[in-house]
């Protein structure tokens, strides 16, 4: 079965604007926004809580099983800070949002991140960990890094992505 609408993964370090971008893009294009963090909580797709990182330990197999049918249908924007465990065949575009470290530090501080969690995420952004993960997990020509420092960047990204969706054609 060929998908009639594309699937897009929006990934990046926490605080880069994945949920804001994904929500706005879903609204603009009528695609379905899937926030994996919310899905994990709602459906208990985790193996408990990590006190050190202050987050759920997601069960990647359970997440993939839960999403399989939905992803095959197409028309999804998946929002998550990891990307290497999703099947490559699911995505037509992988967007990696990137944010200046000073901007990111301020965003994560406002969220109340602990010093270790803050440091871990800033290092992740400095070393472009998510961009490298995306490039290793998906075809290079579907990985699209986008700057996400400001409201203007989000607006520009929405225009770019909306146009990409408008032009997308299913592969046969």
Describe the fold and architecture.
The longest helix is centred in the last third of the chain and has 17 residues. Strand 3 and strand 4 form a beta hairpin. The protein has a 5-stranded parallel beta sheet, sandwiched between helices. The chain has a two-stranded antiparallel sheet with strand order 3-4. The model has no long low-confidence stretch (mean pLDDT 96). The chain has one domain: P-loop containing nucleotide triphosphate hydrolases (Rossmann fold, 3-Layer(aba) Sandwich). The N and C termini lie close together (9 Å). The chain has 7 helices and 7 strands; from the N terminus they run βαβαββαββαααβα. The chain is globular, with a radius of gyration of 16 Å. Helix content is 48%, strand content 20%. Helix 1 packs across helix 7 and helix 4 runs antiparallel to helix 5. By secondary structure, the chain is α/β, with parallel strands linked by helices. Keywords: ATP-binding, Cytoplasm, Kinase, Nucleotide-binding, Nucleus, Ribosome biogenesis, rRNA processing, Transferase. Its EC number is 2.7.4.3. GO terms for molecular function: AMP kinase activity; ATP binding; ATP hydrolysis activity. Interacts with small ribosomal subunit protein uS11. Not a structural component of 43S pre-ribosomes, but transiently interacts with them by binding to uS11. Belongs to the adenylate kinase family. AK6 subfamily.
Biggest sheet character: 5 strands, parallel
- Structure class: alpha/beta
Looking at the overall shape, the CATH architecture is 3-Layer(aba) Sandwich
Q: Counting H and I runs of at least 4 residues, what is the number of helices? A: 7
Radius of gyration: 16 Å
DSSP summary, beta strand count: 7
Strand content: 15-25%
Q: Rough shape?
A: globular
Please list the strands of the largest sheet in the order they lie side by side: 2-5-1-6-7
| CATH topology group | Rossmann fold
Quaternary state, please? single chain
Termini, distance in Å? 9 Å
CATH class group: Alpha Beta
